[in-house]
Amino acid sequence: MTVVMVIIGGATGALARYYSERFSVRRFGERVPYGTAFVNLLGAFILGLVFALARRGAISHDLLLLLGTGFCGALTTFSGFMGQIENRLRHKANRQLAITYGASVMVLGIALAALGLRLGS
Hints:
With 121 residues, this protein is mostly helical. It has helices at residues 2-28, 34-55, 61-75, 78-89, 95-120.
């Protein structure tokens, strides 16, 4: 059952990431990777909430694997986030955007994970 939970969560998270990226590019263009920011911030919040709920025994280990390892693992993308920052840093005109984007997503991600932990406790 454990592997099945991770597979179901991973498939759902991957689809959510794919459609978030597609929507973001169509709606806002490619200058700022809003889709990646959205999925990473959403994942930080969900992971904080799920960990807090698991810690107090409010959700099962299987649900923790489905939502945490599977869904959030496939939804979020640290490597994609870093690649987008690095790509923008190589272009002089986009350096300030890269720094602002990277710092904003990291600070907001920590804040949203903390909010999730707090709400779940």
